[in-house]
Design a protein that fits this description.
- By secondary structure, the protein is of the alpha+beta class.
- The protein folds into 2 domains: 5-116 and 154-311, no CATH class; 322-435, Alpha-Beta Plaits (2-Layer Sandwich), CATH 3.30.70.
- It has helices at residues 19-26, 40-52, 60-76, 89-102, 122-127, 158-165, 178-190, 197-210, 261-268, 337-355, 397-404, 410-413, and strands spanning 5-11, 32-35, 79-82, 109-114, 148-153, 170-173, 238-241, 247-250, 278-279, 284-286, 291-296, 299-303, 306-308, 313-333, 361-367, 385-394, 418-419, 429-440, 447-452.
- Strands 11-12-8-7-1-2-3-6-4-19 form a 10-stranded mixed β-sheet, sandwiched between helices. Strands 5, 14, 15, 16, 17 and 18 form a 6-stranded antiparallel β-sheet that branches.
């Protein structure tokens, strides 16, 4: 058993900094690189890509990263764990193998965790009486069944552990939880069992601490953002984990950013419901037991964590089509910028009423004045400029198209000193909605495939 391992976060979301995983691999020692690409909306985007092209459906940015660092991870024996496989983890694996072949890298073992995609099994489950009702509203899935795009089970760390036990150097998964990516190497290296609830909870909380990338190393840091040095080259977080379940959040020394108790606390509070019951497929972690200690510059020690047995259910992320939206922008300049923008909004709303267009929602914001804080916004008597942002949401595509033609005419049919129309008409976009559900663990199982190049 190793005395400690270093697990580095290389990606907080699909679209995060391209150089972050490169820096993690090259600017200091690490044992594992974990990259989180998936969110609920991401799965529907990847499913639509796969429907258009069966060879796609994974986070293609990950392949560009591997083009850069694959020789490094092989040379330094770094293991990579990522959920970049999305809706097509085998295609993602094949793309990595193509890079290995091009670079003449031999004997590269890649593990694939799959079985989370239950899109084609929804009717089977419904026929068996497994309702998949909406977790929050209790609504029956039949109400949106014909509009479902994707359905994925959130698996935990265990199948990733199985891939590591089969000597996979790279593990590509579908919808494995963000925290499970970090817990898995701890279970594998330290021999934790699936009943070591306190240690498993520590691994989950470690994963939660680094799953959003630089958010725990000074990015998006409300308590002290002005104190963060060299934010242009911010270092991503590293978990220095120990067999006892204690761990330290840190970063490479020669990078920007700041790791202190405040930055770690802010990340720990991210997407947190009941702090006593943070439910994951692996364990139920108690966030109220977390102890934090500044253990040196850019080092926060985390200890004292307790946990409870997991539930008998997996969470399911279902996406479905929920109509259309169209959002337009125009910018009005001083003087009387806000008054002009409000008049333009009034004109558009009047024309919607005149033509009888049906929308579920019409929403207006004045960027530069109230788009963030709404009615709580600080009053400004005479802003230099205001961006009118007006959007509609509904199910009538024809009405959506008609609305999209109303913004540009305001250039000559509305208040003066307007700009921001160079991009042309706004375009209607499909609304993808999220449907969370629960499914018994006994009816679906993760599967693992490990192959060598």
């Amino acid at each position: 058993m190793k005395e400690k391992i270093r697990i580095a976060s290389g990606q907080g979301f699909w679209g995060d900094r391209f150089d972050a995983p490169i820096d993690q691999v090259r600017k200091g020692p690490i044992d594992y690189l974990v990259l989180d690409y998936l969110a609920e909306l991401t799965m529907s985007i990847l499913q639509k890509k796969k429907m258009r092209n069966p060879a796609l459906g994974y986070a293609e940015d990950f392949i560009a990263v591997m083009e850069e660092i694959l020789p490094d991870i092989v040379e330094k024996d770094i293991k990579v764990i990522t959920n970049a496989g999305g809706m097509n983890p085998f295609a993602c694996r094949d793309a990595i193998l193509q890079i290995a072949e091009k670079r003449q890298i031999k004997n590269l073992k890649i593990g694939v965790v799959y079985g989370d995609d239950i899109t084609d099994r929804i009717d089977e489950f419904l026929d068996r009486g497994i309702a998949l009702n909406h977790m929050e509203t209790g609504e029956d899935l039949h109400t949106v069944r014909e509009r479902v795009y994707s359905a994925n089970v959130y698996f935990g760390a265990q199948p990733v552990v199985e891939a590591l036990q089969a000597d996979a150097q790279i593990v590509v998964t579908g919808r494995v939880t963000d925290t499970g990516l970090t817990l898995a190497p701890m279970m594998y290296e330290f021999g934790w069992s699936d009943t070591d609830y306190d240690k498993l909870s520590a691994g989950i909380i470690a994963g939660h601490a680094i799953e959003c990338g630089a958010q725990s190393t000074g990015g998006n840091f409300l308590a002290g953002w002005k104190e963060v040095p060299n934010m242009a080259h911010i270092g991503f977080p590293i978990v220095e984990a120990y067999p006892t379940g204690e761990f330290v959040i840190t970063k490479h020394e020669n990078t920007g950013g700041l790791v202190d108790v405040r930055s770690v606390k802010e990340q720990l509070l991210y997407e947190l419901g009941d702090p006593r019951e943070y439910i994951t497929p692996d364990v139920v972690a108690d966030f109220t037991t977390i102890q934090l200690e500044q253990a040196g510059p850019n080092r926060v020690r985390v200890f004292g964590i307790k946990g409870k047995p997991p539930t008998d259910f997996y969470k399911v992320s279902i996406s479905y089509s929920d109509g259309w939206t169209c959002i337009g922008h125009l910018t009005y300049g001083w003087p009387e910028a806000l008054e002009k923008a409000r008049k333009a909004d009034e004109i558009i709303r009047q024309r919607i009423r005149d033509f009888g267009w049906e929308f579920e929602e019409i929403h207006t914001e004045f960027l530069g004045y109230n788009s963030i804080h709404g009615p709580l916004s600080h009053h400004i008597d005479e802003p230099n400029e205001v961006v009118l942002q007006i959007g509609v949401r509904g199910y009538n595509r024809e009405h959506m198209e008609r609305f999209s033609r109303e913004m540009i005419p305001l250039v000559l049919c509305g208040p003066p000193t307007v700009t921001g129309f160079g991009s042309g008409r706004p375009k209607p976009k499909e609304v993808i909605a999220y449907w969370p559900a629960l499914i018994p663990k006994k009816v679906v199982s993760p599967r693992v495939d490990v192959s060598s190049h």
